[in-house]
Amino acid sequence: xxxxxxxxxxxxxxxxxxxxxxxxxxxxxxxxxxxxxxxxxxxxxxxxxxxxxxxxxxxxxxxxxxxxxxxxxxxxxxxxxxxxxxxxxx
Length: 90
Prior knowledge:
With 90 residues, this protein is of the alpha+beta class. It is 27% helix and 40% strand. The longest helix is centred in the middle third of the chain and has 13 residues, at 50-62.
C-alpha cells in the first residue's frame, strides 16, 4: 500500500474532473478523496497499490474530456489508512 497526493492545475473545475476522478479511483479500488481548491486547482489524495496509483496519476495528467491540465504536482508517501472509500471532500 502507498499513498499519493496530486495537485492538478489548469481548467480543472466545472469540467467533471472530480466526478470522473472518483469514478476512475473507485474502479481501481483506491481509497481517498478529491476536492476543488479555492485557487482553481483540484486536490487528490489516494491510497492503494502503486500500480493503481500510477493509473490514477496517468488519468490526472490528462483529466476528463473538457479539462485542460496545465501543470501537475504529486508525491508518494506512506499510507495513513484513514479512508473507507473514495469520495468528494469539501
